[in-house]
Design a protein that fits this description.
The complex is a heterodimer of chains A (about 300) and B (about 170). With about 300 residues, chain A is of the alpha+beta class. Chain A contains 3 helices and 12 strands. In chain A, a hairpin with a 4-residue loop joins strand 4 and strand 5. With about 170 residues, chain B is mainly alpha-helical. Classes of the chains: A alpha+beta (about 300), B mainly alpha (about 170). The interface between A and B is large, with 48 and 40 residues.
Amino acid sequence: MENVQQPFFHRGPTPLARFLLAVSLALALIAADGRFGYLVHLQRAVAVIVHPLQQIALLPGWLSARVAGFFTTQSQLAVRNGVLEQQNLVNQAALLRLEALEQENARLRTLLDSRSTRPPGALFAEIVYSHRDPFTRRVIVDKGSSAGVAEGHPVVDAEGLVGQVTRVFPWSSRVTLITDKDMIVPVQVMRSGVRGVLYGTGSDGRLELRFMPFSADIQAGDRLVTSGIDGTYPAGLPVALVEEVERDAAQMFARVAARPATGVNRYRQVLILAQPAPETANPGMDDPPPAARRRAKKAG
Amino acid sequence: MAAPRQELLLPVKPLFLWATLVAALLLNLLPWAGWLAAIRPDFTALALLFWIVREPQRVGFGTAFAFGLAMDIGQASLFGQHALAYAVIAYSATLLRRRLRMFSADKHVLQILPVLLVAQVVVLLVNLASGAASPGWTWLVPPVTGALLWPLVWAVLLLPQRPRVDPEHPI
């Protein structure tokens, strides 16, 4: 007669088996997110669960800011008001010029019989978290898909391009800064019109303009603006300032180091340019690839 | 070495257990800045370690994994890297469980430190493999502060389980 002894306690798989299962699952998630950008829905679900906790975590800072704001003195406010009024005057003058230019531009465009560029709709957002993870340059802003943000929207502040929305959650979204190692922005030298591709390096305040030929007309102090040929960023946004150009005959290309025009450390408010991606004129074969999208693979 | 005085503890309240885990996650999600951010220990890792050592029937790999995913979203890091680190922590906790009971909390520090360091290095390796630049030696500071904080975590999380002893009637 068979005598099968039942275990007293149900134990399930051994710790090692559970560990290996968890590790392989985690590695699969990492590969799915890092390599292929899958699992967006799972990430959104987790984000919805974590969102209230994030809000609570921000509460002390918000409260202290409110209390500090309550106690600003009248003189401080007056000084600030004066500064803002001056700034407003300058902006007004610039705006008038812009209006004239826009009209002129519209006339010229009708002459050329081309499609008019739509002014992008802008969405005001605030950075709630910055620099949590030392390996990436990403921030979290307080507007999400419920406010109309979508992946791929460029993000700017008062001084230029900040980055691009790379993941949208219902009430928040993740902005990858131009300094992230995976970010590439197609740019143009403002002075000479030379086009190039600006790579993030993963460290703050450092960008690299790669694959520039020796003969390219570029020098330290040049301003780099978006070229707009990728269809992601509108043309003409300030991006970076060239810091040094190194032409080493041993190298294939000139080494161009740049510094971002803006810093997320300075501003908490950003604008998300929520525009429908315009179809661009065909970028020619000699143009850089439409690189503003995040690289799926690392460029070799 | 003498084992610490064994004491009879009350059973843990499930509400307290889960509340402390969520509170630890909340501490991690606070907007830390400057040098505080550089030395911030991983509170969630400490809380998970404690509860897997103390209550292996309630908290295990699944909990660790879920909290890891929450951390990844909260920190905007590579999805799954904290899940991996917390799996390492959960496994170490199951291995250390019996040994830690032989020592008092202040002697746990040097046994906890390698666990936290390994978890941190795992995260570093994952990120280096995905092409990130190394964050430098400061990356190894949070495990040290975490290990130093361990006796405090141990004392605080055990507090509600200690029976109230009436000095007039000890038994």
